Amino acid sequence: MIAPALDVKKTWVSRELKHNRQLFRAQFSPDGKFIAAGGQDKLVHAWELEGENKMTFDAHKTWVSSLTFHPKAKCLFTADYLGVIHCWDYESGGKPKWTIPNADQDNVRALVVTPDGKYLLSAGDDAIIKVWNPANGKPLTQLAGHTECIFSLAISPDGKHLVSGDLLGCVRQWNLGNWKPVRELNAKILHTRLDNFIADVGGARSLAFSNDGKILAVGGMKEAKSNAFCPGKPTVLIFDWASGKQKIELGIKGKSDGPFNALRFLEDGTLIGHTEILHTNSELTFWKTDTPDPLHSISNGSAYDLSLHPDGRQLLVPTYVSGGASGNGARERHREEYPPNKTSLKIFSLSAKPAEDKKAG
Amino acid sequence: MKTTPHNHACGNADHRISRRQMLGTLGGAVGFGSLLQPAFAKEIKKQEKRVCLIWLDGGMSQYESWHPLPNSKFAGPFRNIKTSIPGIHFSELMPHTAKIAHKISVIRSMETKDPNHSTGVPRVQRGDPLDRGVDYPYLGSAIAKLLGPANPGLPPYLWIKPGNGGFIHREAGFLGTRYGAMALGDGRPPVHIQRPDSISAELDAARNALRQKANERFKAYRGASEIDAYETSYDMALQLMARKDIFDDAQLGPKDKERYGSHPLGRHILRARQLLEAGVRFVKVNSYHWDTHGDNFNMSQRLVPQIDQPFAALINDLEDRGLLDHTLVVLMSEFGRTPIINSRLGRDHWPDCWSIGLAGCGIKRGAIIGKTTKDGAFVDGEGYDIGHLFHTIFTLLGINPDKTHYRHKGQKLAIANDECEPIKEVMM
Amino acid sequence: MRAFILICLLQTSLSGWAAEHLHQSIDRLISAKAQGATAPTSDDSEFFRRVQLDFSGTIPKASEVRAFLKNKSPDKRTKLIDQLLGRDTFAAHWTDRLTVMLLERQNLGKVTEEEWRGYLTKVLKGKPEWDVMAREMIAATGRGEARPAMKFLGAANHHEMTEGIAQLFLGMDLKCAKCHDHPSVDDWKQEHYWGLFTYLNQTKLGTNSKDKQTYLVEGLATKKVEFQSVFETEKKNTGPRLPGGKEIAIPTFEKGQEFEEPASDGLPAVPKFRPRELLARNLTAKDNTYFVRNSVNRFWFLMMGRGLVHPLDEVHGKNPPSHPALLDLLAKEFVAHGFDMKWLLREIALSESYQRSSRLSAKPKSVKAASYRTAHPKALTPEQLLNAVLKATGNLEKVRAMKVDPDAEKFDRKGYFTGTNLDLPPSLDEIRAIFVQTYGNPPGEAEVDFMPGLNKSLFLMNDKLIIHWLKPHEGNLIERLTKMKTAEAIAEELYLSVLARFPTEDEEATTDNYLKRNENRREGALGDLAWALLNSAEFRLNH
Q1: Where does the pLDDT of residue A1 fall: very low under 50, low under 70, confident under 90, or very high at 90 and above?
Q2: How far apart are CA B26 and CA C257, in angstroms?
Q3: At the topology level of CATH, where does B38-192+252-426 sit?
Q4: C511 part of a folded domain
């Protein structure tokens, strides 16, 4: 079957998988047959997209913070806020294949596997990038250099470099293999600490390379207004990879006020990001990276992850859904029923809706 | 220095000077006239009760601090850690406080009424009294009125806050401006306690002698109390100027700064310790921006340690100095935060069931009280309102809230909510 | 004194007290309740300083004191009082006093402070009639010449207007009576609060679409207001009603007949029935004893430092006046003289009671302020204090002449108090704001009694401005003193300038001693001597 033409302006929700708790991370498997997701209920969930078979993996003792698939082996790596990484055989289920108990002092915020499948990399609160053998979870090396917690990791498409972004908006480049630091890119605008703040706000929350490797996008927000609600201006910085110079700053047109926690490039060079709500709104945003204003945007519940299906036409967004009981002081109103908030794993189709569906709809 | 263990069973930690000390002083005093008197007076002064209110404005999350409940469906991602009390756990964000849990009490069943900051802050700091159509004083002003200064040379109510300082009258409510707070912006004293560089101490004494002489002359044949009151305000000013050391960082060791932390809250609580030691009756320390509606977990991870470390250091230091039995430390906000984690990974305002920390001055050691429903969302049984807390505070300070009243324009006003009573569970 | 006795004799021989001037009646009624020796009449310098502060808002210059003391005319006090009442400085100072009383240092509503002050000053330069002024403030619409009077009603918050009018024009602090009858004052009922409220609850701000100005407009009153005590279950209601007055029926009109003028220019139609206008008229009527007694009590307080009823907003049966007959008489005479403010102030100033010394001739055990046996010391208001400091130190002209660079950054006043701003304030306005912030009460709080405070003392002791003003600058006090040779001359100039009186021998000796002990730092020593007087109770009080 020929893939339908990309037409992001006609993006629509083709499928939703509901879950009764909030999930932060969700990814398609490399073969596109599974979705794995994790979040507040401490479980790892895997849906088989054909037949809707669902599995649950139970080993984390706290919220699941990151998750990534091995590009070749049938392995899923999941990490949590207590620094634990588990490796799962997501097709057969059962217990973890292996476990790293202390991949970070605290939260593992980012996990990636190199395209050749040779290395698993993790990073988080202790500001040290760790390199693991994905086959057995054995440590290979550690990369020190960041001074604050690391939010994001990405591998260049040529498989030669790793980039890592931290709370202070420092983006570091490392050689894969000999693990030498190469250079620093300046994304400090994504960090805010005003005089009256009592915490740093923001960070280089997300990183993505264009498919041709010429552009690195760094997502987050600038100009945070407080460290309580933490709202700011969602922002993506576009760097020319060859020179390391910032080319352009991408913003939004809507009222969203949280950072871009996830970014993905499409094959035609379109960049997609999703913001988090911090006060008013959140959105799914599309740009051409030579224009500051978005090409298109869709208001959507808060999200922290994006995954592109191997077909390049479907985008998975673990979207926040209200459980109906949020808000200040409840008194008796919620004493009987006080449910937590939920998630809809939305699959957006990035091309026009087929005609028959339109009629039916 | 280690303090002698106290007999908690006596039910009264009323700060007695030990029998041995008393005998020693009195015995030694025979034949020495008043020579030993200062030592005795110093001991009395040390035992004057004082209060430190640490106010985390906006509302600290109980789940990320005093009451983690990791198995609750509302739990955050952080670890539970053991405390120095077997079976009691705090959030991993409070490692220092966990070690001193046996020295403090925690109430996990606060159930207050106001879910808004703008009304909640004054309501809580005024003790939420029944409406009598007057503006009640905030706690610090109330104590300033009811107990006066602990050290007559120092103002009874100092308020350490970020930003600007000044004289904050509004907290005094109907008591009148003189019971307001002297606010120390970023812990710094008001600029006017600095004698101008051009004036030496000798000169200052000389010109003040001239001033006093002028007042004496003016006072002759005049009975007006205004003149005495004016003279008193100068005495206080001079005494405060003479005690600039209590605002002086140089008096603190580098270890102190390390133990309290270099962030504002650490520096400010350390300054509070200095002031309490000097005999300031009531010190309030404010920290702002705890209203984590958005990104609560990243923020709590960075905020809670900022109170954990200096709070524990303060309790330890007060104990080491023999002051904890006379100093009531209250750590609180205007409310807690919602069990539900909202769309912003934040927690909203939750007066329905939240936690506060208390220590010293007759507060039980290691009483972690309050039952909640399984997930920690609601109090199981009767909760404690802010009026109960005020009754507790007044009672511990030796003020009987049932027998003590304010008088305002002919109106007899209860000092604490008439419908509440002290929280016996946390009192020795 | 002789003149006074003569008049008394003259009058007793006349039929009753009919021909007695009010100031004489004041003295008669005060003496009748003195219960002890009264202080002698103030000496000329004491009187001169007092009346200058009260009518001109500042202390006199040394040369003025000298001239007044030299003047041997027997009626020089009366003449001075009349002169001062006619000067622009009276209008300026009483603009300050009335503004602080009426607005309590709040910048209310859309009328600027400048416009408001302009309005008061203009009235005070002429023959101010207090009932007219009160009426203009309560009935203010924003139209016509009295437009600035609308500042008093601020943003037209119904509760704030109710409480403000009750407190300032009726002497009733009715805040507690909003939710229930006053718990301890039997006279004050919840219906008093709501009766007043119902006069005001149709008032709101409106903007004229043409001139873009804000006006106070009234909506259509159609029904009574319902209220309920928090202690009772029964609901009550009331129409517009003054305390002690009768409830006013709210008229009903046929549909279409309710309005006098149609809506126009974005402002609503003007109803025929306008309760606030009625309130202005009825409240300020001469038979409303609440209003009249409150008025005279407040003016008495402003002159004497203590109300006949004190606190001022506690006029009720449980807080009776110290001199009931006097209060009644003041009220009656004030009405008889058409609420003429200057007349009333003049009569008070002419009284022996006002002109008494603050010093008894023998050491008193204690003198009750309410007896008026001595002059009651009044704190200088923040404005008086600033004027006095500038005048005493001889820096007034310099400060007045300061020009603000329009392009300069706004002065960081907060930083001035926290020590981050080391600059001196650039203008008299800024200096005044600093004094008001230090010596005034926070906005919304009345300034009545003397409230010494740590911060206030510290300011006068150590503030940069004070230190600066006590260094020799061209023509100022310290510079003048440096040129004087003898301790005697120095003491005289110093005491006349700062305390508006000659020094005693003892004080001369103190001055001499201090200068001798500090021979090598004469300028500094002169500054110290002036500093000590500036910081003395005698300077801080209007005694």
Answers
A1: low
A2: 92
A3: Alkaline Phosphatase, subunit A (3.40.720)
A4: yes
Per-residue confidence (pLDDT) for residue C318, from 0 to 100 = 83
Which residue type does B138 have? Y
Q: Is B248 in CB contact (< 8 Å) with chain A?
A: no
User: What whole-number distance in Å separates Cα of residue C392 and Cα of residue C481?
Assistant: 12
The C-alpha of C286 sits at a distance from chain B's nearest C-alpha, in angstroms, of 29
Judged by CB atoms within 8 Å, which residues 261-280 of B form the interface with A? 263-265
Number of folded domains that form chain C: 2
Each residue's pLDDT tens digit, B189-217: 888 988 888 889 999 999 999 999 999 99
Question: Residues C42-55: what's their mean pLDDT?
Answer: 98
**ipTM for the complex shown:** 0.93
Q: pTM to 2 decimals?
A: 0.78
- Of residues C363, C419, C529, nearest to B191 (C-beta): C419
Cβ neighbours for A106, distance < 8 A, ≥ 6 positions apart: A81, A82, A83, A124, A125, A126, B301
> CB A331 to CB B74 under 8 A?
no
Assess B74–A contact: CB distance below 8 Å, yes or no: yes
Of C283, C309, C331, the position where a domain reaches its end is C283
In Å, how far is B292's CA from the nearest CA of chain A? Answer: 4
* Interatomic CA distance for residues C58 and C380, integer angstroms: 9
> Domain residues for C177?
90-283
The answer on pLDDT for C183 being more than 70 is no
User: What are A310-345's pLDDT values in tens digits?
Assistant: 999 999 999 999 988 888 887 777 888 888 999 999
Cis peptide before B70 (omega within 30 of 0): no
Determine A/B contact with 3+ CB pairs under 8 A as the test. yes
Q: How confident is the model at residue A356 (pLDDT cuts 50, 70, 90)?
A: low
Q: Which sign does the torsion angle of CA A99, A100, A104, A108 carry?
A: negative
Judge: A276–B344 Cβ closer than 8 Å, yes or no: yes
Query: Is the sign of the CA dihedral A73, A79, A83, A84 positive or negative?
Result: negative
Contacts of C271 (CB under 8 A, 6+ apart): C202, C218, C219, C220, C221, C258, C259, C260
Reduced to 3 states (helix: H, G, I; strand: E, B; else coil), residue A279 is: coil
